């Protein structure tokens, strides 16, 4: 008994499972922590890159803005000198200049911590006004540079180790240049943006905190249904199939995962029930002939029956042993196909002739009082199949049809053969005139060990006929499916590939 059942299951799976768990027995990280950590790393890298780019951009734009402001202040200073002293001649104009308030604190107007060096010189290069103690700048105030048409000059200051910018504007009185207003400032002072950096870092910090909170809660929301599925899987592993997982999720992929998992749990529960029924069925199916054989042989041994009656008891014992042998053979064959250990002896045959021969042998062997009508294809069609395996499929379908029709004299079995050249397939439709399969049982008829409620009490077996037939059809490159089933009858379709002529 134990040996017979073990044949149904693939022993090689034990090693595969062991290898799988051995290879994956490494410390795992919770999905929320795993993805939160990666999101944080990605966010940090992104914010660092944005901060660096923004800092360079702020520094550049601030430098350009302050340089433009310095040029504006130079021109405005020259303009106000002329407008405030129009009545004076050019010599006295520069000697009695009124220092404007913005010249006393130019850095404030340029939003700088330092003040630029300001010089007002006459057309000979003599300094009339300056606010800088740096005497090294005086050499840059020679008339040759001042009379140059360029308003902006750049020099390198070795003492400050920085670029020095000189901006100048002429003081023109009545079309004559009376002198120049000159501003000097280092590039480092023009580009200094400490306050802007603080604002940038505050903004980036606030964005980082908001993003971290968003990442945490989004990861938690994503992880929850997956965690629920994992917990439900643990329950199923322990044999509890009553799992409750909320489907109130908006993510399509997560919803599909939950829905598929629930369907899997339902099917597993169904298979578990089938397995339990199988054990009970196998026990019953094998126990009955064993008990019968034991009783019959014991009666012969004890002399309860003699001669012709004893011979009859021996015949019955042989029949029961053949029945038990057939059950074991079914289990062996199914296990062989399930593990892909059953070779096929394929040959090219004509589907019409082969079907007729299989039906004729079935009618002669079993002598069923069932009318079988065969409708061949319009023209000869070759297929490549294992004849014995094809016979197994058709005989199983015809036996099921006979049981569905109760084998009465009015029973008819239609076998329709159709070739589809566009898909290079041939269809063998087996249609009975029975009462049909219950609609709630139809999705499970190809499940292993499934037996309908009515069939459990009418015929013996393990429920491997249709699953075995479908498996054989697949091995020959075809398929077996339930085409339709109503109260007027049931149609099964066997699909096989057509063999082209070479």
In short:
This protein is of the alpha+beta class and 502 residues long. The protein is built from 15 helices and twelve strands.
How is this structure best described in words?
The chain has helices at residues 2-6, 12-23, 31-84, 90-95, 101-104, 106-109, 143-146, 187-190, 194-237, 252-301, 307-338, 351-366, 387-404, 453-458, 465-475; strands at residues 117-122, 127-130, 152-157, 162-173, 176-186, 346-350, 371-375, 382-386, 412-420, 425-431, 479-486, 489-497. 19% of the residues are buried. Strand 11 (479-486) and strand 12 (489-497) form a beta hairpin. Residues 1-11 and 92-97 have low confidence and may be disordered. It has 3 domains: 44-196, Beta-Lactamase; 241-342, Helix Hairpins (Orthogonal Bundle), CATH 1.10.287.130; 346-497, Histidine kinase-like ATPase, C-terminal domain (Heat Shock Protein 90, 2-Layer Sandwich), CATH 3.30.565. The strands form 3 sheets. It has a 5-stranded antiparallel beta sheet. Helices cover 54% and strands 17% of the residues. It starts with a helix and ends in a 5-residue tail after the last strand. With 502 residues, the chain is α+β, with helices and mostly antiparallel strands. The chain has 15 helices and 12 strands.
The parts where pLDDT drops under 50 for at least 5 residues are: 1-11, 92-97
Instruction: Tell me roughly what share of residues is in helical segments.
Output: 40-55%
* CATH architectural label of the largest domain: 2-Layer Sandwich
Mean pLDDT: 78
First and last CA, distance = 51 Å
Tell me the structural class. alpha+beta
Order of strands, main sheet, comes to 2-1-5-4-3
State the order of secondary-structure elements, H for helix, E for strand: HHHHHHEEHEEEHHHHEHEEHEEHHEE
Beta fraction: 15-25%
Biggest beta sheet summary: 5 strands, antiparallel
| Tally of DSSP helical segments | 15
Number of E strands = 12
Q: According to CATH, what is the topology of the largest domain?
A: Beta-Lactamase
Count of structural domains: 3
């Amino acid at each position: 008994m134990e040996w017979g059942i073990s044949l149904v299951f693939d022993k090689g799976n034990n090693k595969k499972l062991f290898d799988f768990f051995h290879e994956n027995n490494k410390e795992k990280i919770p999905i929320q922590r795993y993805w939160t950590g990666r999101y944080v790393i990605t966010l940090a890298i992104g914010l660092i890159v944005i901060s660096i780019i923004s800092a360079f951009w702020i520094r550049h734009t601030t430098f350009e803005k302050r340089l433009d402001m310095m040029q504006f202040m130079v021109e405005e200073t020259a303009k106000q000198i002329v407008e405030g002293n129009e009545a004076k001649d050019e010599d006295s104009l520069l000697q009695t200049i009124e220092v404007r308030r913005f010249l006393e604190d130019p850095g404030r107007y340029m939003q700088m911590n330092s003040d630029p060096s300001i010089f007002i010189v006459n057309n000979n290069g003599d300094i009339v006004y300056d606010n800088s103690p740096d005497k090294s700048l005086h050499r840059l105030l020679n008339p040759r540079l001042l009379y140059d048409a360029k308003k902006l000059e750049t020099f390198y200051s070795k003492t400050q180790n920085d670029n020095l910018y000189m901006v100048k504007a002429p003081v023109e009185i009545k079309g004559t240049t009376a002198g120049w207003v000159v501003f000097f400032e280092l590039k480092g002072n023009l580009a200094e943006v400490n306050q802007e950096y603080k604002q940038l870092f505050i903004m980036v910090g606030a964005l980082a905190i908001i993003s971290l909170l968003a990442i945490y809660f989004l990861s938690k929301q994503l992880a929850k249904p997956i965690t629920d599925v994992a917990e439900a899987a643990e329950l199923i592993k322990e044999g509890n199939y009553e799992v409750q997982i909320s489907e109130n999720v908006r993510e399509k992929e997560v919803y599909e995962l939950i829905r598929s998992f629930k369907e899997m749990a339902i099917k597993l529960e169904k298979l578990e029930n089938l397995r339990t029924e199988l054990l009970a069925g196998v026990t019953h199916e094998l126990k009955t002939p064993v008990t019968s054989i034991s009783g019959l042989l014991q009666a012969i041994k004890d002399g309860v029956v003699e001669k012709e009656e004893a011979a009859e008891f021996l015949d019955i014992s042989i029949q029961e042993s053949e029945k038990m042998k057939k059950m074991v053979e079914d289990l062996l064959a199914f296990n062989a196909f399930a593990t892909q250990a059953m070779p096929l002896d394929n040959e090219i045959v004509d589907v019409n002739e082969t079907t007729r021969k299989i039906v004729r042998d079935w009618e002669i062997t079993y002598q069923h009082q069932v009318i079988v009508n065969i409708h061949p294809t319009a023209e000869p069609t070759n297929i490549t199949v294992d004849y014995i395996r094809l016979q197994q499929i058709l005989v199983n379908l015809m036996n099921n049809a006979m049981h569905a029709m109760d084998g009465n004299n009015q029973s008819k079995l239609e076998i329709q053969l159709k070739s589809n050249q566009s898909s290079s397939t041939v269809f063998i439709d087996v249609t009975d005139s029975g009462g049909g399969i219950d609609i709630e049982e139809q999705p499970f008829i190809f499940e292993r060990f499934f037996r309908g409620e009515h069939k459990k009490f009418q015929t013996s077996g393990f429920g491997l006929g249709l699953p075995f037939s479908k498996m054989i059809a697949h091995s020959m490159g075809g398929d077996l499916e339930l085409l339709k089933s109503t109260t007027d009858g049931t149609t099964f379709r066997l699909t096989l590939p057509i063999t082209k002529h070479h």
